[in-house]
């Protein structure tokens, strides 16, 4: 009989070991619950409560005849159950036989197979084998002790095999065509679930039900065991050709779990041999329950996970935008996998979870989560998205573009929400998976340190899409501890960088500490308890922002600069159009077309970036974290460590805590950079919350600039203040305009802060400090104008003016700025005027060589750019002087200031109303932001504001370079002609001219001192000294007013560049006496001479 048994396959050793262990586990069984039998005539159901099945023995072969008789007894039909008060009795043996037949669809009885049309498979080889074992006895009923043999016999049947056994031929012919082993096992598993459901509904006694359930679970374990083995070794049993086998058979149903296919969870119209969406979770749980205890889960599901997460759909060029959104299926499948605790742990233990051999560039393609996390919209990784959604954006309507934005943002939101849920599930699974997730984030950070560099090859680091997606995940992890009242802020470990190695800042620049100080601090604070999860997330989110998200924003900003370059190039190529009709036309037109194509590509890329970076939900989360980070940073600087409850006192202590000094500088940088981005591109997002925190951060570090070493960071904070008062929508004064005029902190500190920074920015130590200061001061000027109408702020200015030395230095810097900026802007206006005049002579211009014309056109554009900047900066500073001179006079009358102020005003007045004024006439002055009428009005107002000050009229009279009575009278004519001033102002102007002329006569009389000894003359100004002092290092004698004026701009000795303060100078008392005596003697002589002259005349 043994020859009739099909050749038994030889499984691999591991599979055999697993199978043998399984057989050992199947020896203990108890059962209950009858199900209608398909193998024989239904067994008679008995209602006798005293009758109960005997517990099975290891070999269920006793009393085979009695068993056969039981099979032939009729009765009980499932279709007509009778509800009785007493529980129904379960004929366990009959139910067990029927259940196994139904679940496995196998029988040892040929007649049963015949009646089912061979839907139930007759295991003829096994039946023949067992018949030899039972000799002349009838074969036993199917029972749990036989299920391993039954299942193996069924799995070993090869539908493709040839047979000469005519009885067995119908069996082979009736097998489901092309059905895989896995499909058969899934069908058996599903039928087993149905049998279990039916059993529970019957209402048998608890003991009987439990016995039956135990048998079902043994069968379940066996089916799941072979399903797992099939996933590992699909060729263990005969399989159809041409079908995907093994892991793909589970990957396919996992892919059906798309979030868009959620309704399918209730759809039962799927094949009886395939896993429907509603089956998968339980199937995965069964696999985990079976294989996890033996640490074999990765062997079974490892390749399933790999094939799912490295699915080819994730690498298609269309990415998220494809018509076939298989990526959603990958997400759904992964969500199902991680919902099972054992599988979640297994995934994080796989070598591909955090591959050791990966680098920054390929980590997102080699790590399990990488392909999903790199999906996005940015152009470098996904150029087709920009082409499909934002082609020719200049030709698209705003509504059309907004529709594309909404579509992509909806897709991104779906992806990022799912990614967070996956990571969150992993974190909540247990300590080991949580640690694996944290190490994953840490690895991403450490690999991408170079992303934050100024010059970085994008091919050597992670993509923008990958980094931004990880950032969104971390933002969501951070939300629970970022409550409005900051109740959990103390749970963040301030010594994290010494206690943890997740974020390595060894090579990072610190806020205010040297390398040695940072190293010593870390060594002193090493050890201690491991940081908590909140601390890990907080610092990882911050680091990820610096190396990832902020760099993506920087890339977006670079596109904007590139677009400006393209526009300039286009303007250069177009020129004045004189190339039209020349031999150069074809070449130039081709170049223009190429540039226009490039422009369209850059615009498409910009739109793609905006789809993600300007997504309202991402901006809200980014602002929320940045605000929280800014509050935490101030708390670290606060000596009391209580901010914001109560707020830190400003200005902060001069003693900067070492724990603050050693923090990485990028914390401040990221706060400032994101605030600048958000205030510029999404100011409306601050309307709900964040204004107070934004303002307090700005005031804190601009009032206490000694907390930050980097001068560029301080200037960036000032830039944020400027952007936060830039109007948008209906808010004419921006985000903070209203708050700066009402908040007590702003009313108390703003004026002092602005003045302090205006002075400090004069010397930053950078090579570009001369030009950088003008941008910073323009911003300050704008802020001052916004708050100037508030009397409280003007009172604060007057209080600041009481600190004469500081205020005088502030005024001196303003005068210096106006002098330089006005000179540059008016000079460039003259050059622009000259070139435009040359171009207006069309005949002469066209006669010039093409290269000459192109060169002059390029020079003109460059001059226009520079002039626009200079006129804006100069005008804003003049406006400040106008406001300040109207409010306070005394500081402007200081000896070291008043002469310089008068000379500057006279010089610019002469440029605007003197003979040179014709050279300032240019085409389109508004394009250059040149408003000569408004500028002249402001200059005249400064004169009028100070016209009643004797020192001022004397200083004007003493200006021998620019002042003349004719100049002032010409200004009066223009004033009247252009209606620049009122009648009363014109009268004040005339009175000023009279006073200046009188002062001039007095000065001329005083200055006729004859020959003055050289030692009495100031070495810089060559005027007679009134208060000579000796400089301590160079030992040079100079007038006090002269050196004070010098020190306002330069804190060094002008003769040897050594550091110098006004307190260091030594009065030259003896020389002063000699000068005073000289002046008295000369004045007396002048009086005598004057008297003699009068006598001679008479």
Describe how the helices and strands are arranged.
Blueprint: H1 13-25, H2 64-72, H3 92-104, E1 106-107, H4 110-115, E2 121-122, H5 124-133, H6 147-155, H7 169-174, H8 181-202, H9 206-232, H10 247-255, H11 277-291, H12 297-309, H13 326-338, H14 341-349, H15 363-366, H16 370-373, H17 383-390, H18 398-429, H19 431-447, H20 464-478, H21 496-499, H22 515-524, H23 533-574, H24 585-613, H25 616-637, H26 658-661, H27 665-681, H28 691-703, H29 711-723, H30 737-740, H31 744-760, H32 769-787, H33 791-801, H34 804-840, H35 842-847, H36 850-887, H37 895-913, H38 932-945, H39 950-957, H40 965-977, H41 983-1007, E3 1028-1030, E4 1037-1039, H42 1040-1047, E5 1066-1067, H43 1069-1097
Parallel strand pairs: 1-2
Antiparallel strand pairs: 3-4, 3-5
Helix pairs in contact: 1-9, 3-8, 3-9, 8-9, 9-11, 9-12, 10-12, 10-13, 12-14, 13-18, 14-19, 17-24, 18-19, 18-20, 18-24, 19-23, 20-23, 20-25, 23-24, 23-27, 25-27, 25-28, 27-29, 28-29, 28-31, 29-32, 31-32, 31-33, 31-34, 32-36, 34-36, 34-37, 36-38, 37-38, 37-39, 39-41, 40-41
